[in-house]
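Exercise 7. Predict the structure of VOC family protein from Arthrobacter zhangbolii.
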Amino acid sequence: MAIARNPTTVLDCPDAVALATFYGALLDWKVNLHEDGPDGDWTDIADDATGQRYCFQQVENYTPPVWPEQDIPQQMHIDVDVDDLDEGEAAVLLLGATKHAYQPGKSFRVFLDPAGHPFCLCQG
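Solution. The predicted structure, encoded as tokens:
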């Protein structure tokens, strides 16, 4: 029997609401604000149909990872599937993402979210 259940991914960031809003729009998931978070700086997004969620924790003195260099190592990243890479790219740029200069593959594209975390749009 499992000791725990319902794992979630938590991203540190300088503005929890802004980053939750970005990913909520990207995935078309509901943004949930939590006034009772550790410091009132906790937000999540959720897909009510599947129960999946991502959490965002606002931290002081946040420093984004540097990728692909490792001066400030990337600790995780999110891959999401899109039907069309060009359409997906246009949409995430409008949401506030930045396309990374280094693009190591042809079936995916690397972007930085508004807090500087790398994420990939994958042809799927």
